[in-house]
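Run HD domain-containing protein through structure prediction, thanks.
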Amino acid sequence: MTYKYQMLPLEKVFRDPVHNYIHVQHQVILDLINSKEVQRLRRIKQLGTTSYTFHGAEHSRFSHSLGVYDITRRICDIFQRNYSQEKYGKDGWDDSHRLVALCAALLHDVGHGPYSHTFEHIFHTDHEALTVAIITSPETEVFQILNNVEEGFPEKVASVITKTYANPQVVQMISSQIDADRMDYLLRDAYYTGTEYGTFDLTRILRVIRPYEGGIAFSMNGMHAVEDYIVSRYQMYVQVYFHPVSRAMEVLLEHLLDRAHELYQEDAEIFTFHSQFLIPFLRQDFSLEDYLKLDDGVLNTYFAQWIEEQDLILSDLAYRFLNRKPLKSITVDSSENPLLIELKTLVEKAGFNPHYYTAINSSYDLPYDLYHPEKGSHRTQIELMQKDGTLIELSKASQLVSALTGQGQGDIRFYYPKEMTQQDSKNSDLFDDYYQAFAKHIRNGALVE
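Sure, done. The structure for HD domain-containing protein is below.
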């Protein structure tokens, strides 16, 4: 028996609060889990700064990756048992693609960095490109394990990440409007944030999932379970992912890293004694090996050291971030509102550098978006399969989803130091006039004339 098909003598299970047990049957999957690149994901939070708002949200990208793997394994089992090509021909499931699907599911997030999206923005990294690099670079343990399956196997797994794999069923298991990735993170994030409205009936969705030649669909009689998933996703974005305090902490983190980047250009020596792993990114010349040294703990250690630095902005931003001193915010109707210039001027007069202590942050996502071929790129549609095998796009059958389709959810916020609106009226302050002028433009958490 080749390594590709080598099964464990006894199934391995991981106890999981979301899926109860996660089952591992293939040696290659267990080896990948034990690789240093996958173990590194234990040290990266799934939700970045969200734990500053929802204190239970300390779960890692490692636990999420195992969850995505297990949902994918369950889908493969269902497809092979009920919808194999032996039964359904070209519309059925070819189980020879199982191991590629399982490996891609487990590794889909292996390229994420610390505080991933904020870090990506500042240092121009791309977690998907880095995931592909980790899978296909001979120096990684992940590559060595995958290459033992068969020559060219790492490239097969990577092609699922880049959505170029020949079998669209596999690609859509990992990346589509309703995939193993989204189904796990919604349930997992809801569990750890304590937000019950983020849950949906995964068991029912897996019961009605169907393969067809062009990808994955869902039986028409399961439409309501899919609707439930769409509404849960909507609620999670509005209530959790777009939470203004979590975004405030992201703004602080972004400005902190931005300040470090600026200081490095002026005096690189500042960071040579305590931030060595970050230097390749500050000078924007890093290797894959450099990238894999970073995790949330490494950055937090550097931030603790930066509190002692002489640069007052770097020191203060690091203190505010580590000790949860978020910026305050108000909603604005437009990022172009001329009043924002006045508010930034008042912030500056009160002693804060507006570049580092103010921000305009907009956060929008579509709970469900349709296929628009004229756009050139799209998220995969959710297709419902009718009794005669024909497909109908979800929003055409569901009034509920139709009402949500294309509706952007989010807001635009202006962030500023809380000192601007939280002064003690009993004690006079040098900047009282500026505070009062600032406060008169805020009512009920929104900008007013």
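Residues 385 and 391 are 5 Å apart (CA to CA).
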